[in-house]
Amino acid sequence: MKSAAALVVVVALAGAAGCSRRSSAAGRNGDMAGMNLPAGSSPVSEPFSPDRAISLPHDEPFAPPGPGRDAFVTACVVCHSTRYITSQPPFSRDTWKGIVQKMIDSYGAHVTPSQAAEIVSYLAATNGAHRLGDEGE
Amino acid sequence: MSRPFDRRGRGMVTRRAILGLAAGFAPGLLPGRGEGAGVDARRMVLFPEKRELYLLTDRPPQLETPLHYFRQDLTPNEAFFVRWHLAGIPTHVDTRTFQLVVNGHVQRPLSFSLDGLRGRFEPVSVIAVAQCSGNSRSLFAPRVPGGQWKHGAMGNALWTGVRLRDLLDAAGVRAGAVDVCFDGLDEPPLSSVPDMVKSLAVEHARDADVMVAYEMNGAPLPMVNGFPLRLVVPGWYATYWIKALSRITVLNRAFDGYWMAKAYRVPNNPEGIEAPDHLAVDTVPISRFTVRSVFVRPEPEEQLSVGRPYEVEGVAFDYGAGIRRVEVSVDGGFHWMDARLDPELGRYSFRRWRYRWSPSVRGQQRLLVRATNHDGAGQLTNHWNRGGYMRCIVEDVQVNVI
User: Which of B37, B58, B78 is facing A81, going by the closest CB pair?
Assistant: First the structure.
């Protein structure tokens, strides 16, 4: 019984090793519930491939239309995708203002005070506290 | 789902009173309802070497593991969550030329190739949970800015590599060393953005459990999980688990970089608690995990049949003391029943728990779970901080019994 369980673990780990190179092999390492791998056991190793490279998927930037959109896209997308905003819940204007100020103070975002004000207005308009009523159910 | 609730938890009253925080948590003040709806709907995405994961952000990538993967004791590499801070993430590593540098306040600055690292030092393995500091942030009420994770910014893996201590000993840490800092291959998109560098006190860095891992679940790490090397700091939040680790620098002073001195700060108390209207002034760098327990099955809004036994299951973990007890309540917290614990896979691992439940009443039912570790540390019924860090709450799941 014990050796059968150990065999399952080895097969599962070998499956995981195979998967890391080819995502098409994903799904082989099955359900490991019930496994009992003591810490310190030596796992199945695979030699490194000499050169590893990936290419990241491009996600189409999404920014709802509205006043200040150009300032937002120009200044913010330099460092991060628009999803940093659109994935957030609605926040008050003050919260958005604090976030924009943090981008300037902590990360050196290249924006003038008037651009910053435009961006804050855009964020508050597109994802502001007035949306709170839409949230939830 | 995760509504704030205030009725349960013996001992909570005392703790809240001590901390003087009770005023901040009147449920009526809480706009958040837990679901992470932004302007953009949450959807799945396929990244290289990964399966479909929830997309939080694409650049830099933040990808969340769907709950069902936690039915497995080891989270598959392809499904393991991803969180980078800087847009310049490594997408290419030539393992023939890659070097890990150990320098700074040492007798012999060293540089290791991957083969050199494997050949020179004894391999060690540990099963440990990697958990983002902000795991479950979307459940904070009131809501806070940051990655809007549910419970999937965590994963449990078998990490294999070399002890950090062995590397430091090879280089010879000089007397007067204070901190050891860690840098990876990721780069800031602008020179004004602080590079992602984290530090550990030299005593912690020399702890036998801290390692430089070259394998995860028996395979090289996926590129977006930190290939070829990742720092593993069992029991501590993954912000310290520097990915694509390339430089270890010993300092004879306290490290004061942005990501320690300004970011990832938490209120200076064990669970990192503060109140929205009474923010903590005294903050410290985030460090070790709080005690957690999460439902894996049933999933939120799952349909269960009345009278039919259902195996409720989940995972619990902590900072390394080990989980001693997990309790489930099916009546809103008035009565608590012990869940059965699966064998321990290591003190830093997920501890699986199970509870057999036969729902006797139709309609919406809410289950609760709480865990206690071997130090007697448990979970809270109210927990909040402005960063959305260190969630330590008695979790619930809402199901529909038909």
Answer: B58
